[in-house]
Amino acid sequence: MDASEFIVSVNESDFDYEVIAYSQRVLVVVDFWAEWCVPCKVLGPILERLANEGKGRFRLAKVNVDENPKLATRFSVRGIPAVKAFRDGEIVAEFTGALPEAKVREFFRNLLPSRVDLILEKAQSLAQAQDWAAAETAFRQVLAERSDDPAALLGLAKCQIAQGRPLEAQNTLRRIPPSREYAAAETLSPLVASMIAATTPEESDNPLDAAYQRALRLTGRGNLLAALDGILDVLRQDKHYRRGEAHRAALGLLELLGEAHPLTRQYRDELASVLF
């Protein structure tokens, strides 16, 4: 990507496209300045240098307030230089005045994902694609630097489940601290417990038991859709199978599949129709 693509001059006619719409994809930092402003001449080069160093991690948009007074009014610019950061069309951070370069760098550190954050994002994408081994490697890279990261711990547990290592997954799930990931861990735990129990199956003449065991084995091979189909078949014949164990395992599988999977909603609807 050419360096000129990191820095753009915007005006009243293209601001909504170049800043508001563009911020849906990447952070856009707007520098409100003027030719006569001495502090602007100090801050401007710092912002431009950081934009070029970032190589596309954010876009710098320059607005000359003398030439675009409506934009200055629209965003309540009362002094310059004024810097406002946009994400998803909204201002998420701002400052006024020519801050020292160290402070400007700190401003960006608080806004931009770190190297570890980017590895975590890669790991989650790999898990979504069900490339479990590669995702596990990436999640472990995150945990090597942030050992209690709840998102990385949850991701690692999912990889362990889908690769047939439920005992490891159980230990990983227990490490997740109180967080928004904790509820997902609670949903996965019954599935993991069922998989562990299935490693030493009891002898049974009930054909549903064999079907259920087969579904759990498919889970450990990463064949999540076939596992869901198998558990749904069990529930169609006995919706209270093992006092709700199969229902809880199905919910764990849906958590493992993830809300981003195109078939998750369909399977949730099918599970609801079977049970209710």
User: Which strand order does the major sheet show?
Assistant: 1-3-2-4-5
Encode the helix/strand succession as letters.
EHEHEHEEHHHHHHHHHH
Structural class designation: alpha/beta
Envelope shape: elongated
Task: Please state the CA-atom Rg, rounded to the nearest Å.
Answer: 26 Å
Quaternary organisation: single chain
Report the span from N to C terminus. 54 Å
Q: What are the low-pLDDT stretches, counting only 5+ consecutive residues below 50?
A: none
Query: Can you tell me the CATH architecture of the largest domain?
Result: Alpha Horseshoe
| CATH class value of the largest domain | Mainly Alpha
Q: Number of helical runs?
A: 13
Q: Write down the overall mean pLDDT.
A: 94
CATH topology of the largest domain: Serine Threonine Protein Phosphatase 5, Tetratricopeptide repeat
Number of domains: 2
Strand-residue proportion: 5-15%
Q: Biggest sheet, in brief?
A: 5 strands, mixed
Description:
With 276 residues, the protein is an alpha/beta fold. The protein folds into two domains: 3-109, Glutaredoxin, CATH 3.40.30.10; 116-275, Serine Threonine Protein Phosphatase 5, Tetratricopeptide repeat (Alpha Horseshoe), CATH 1.25.40. The chain is 58% helix and 11% strand. Strands 1-3-2-4-5 form a five-stranded mixed sheet, with helices on both faces. The protein is elongated, with a radius of gyration of 26 Å. The termini are far apart. The mean pLDDT is 94.
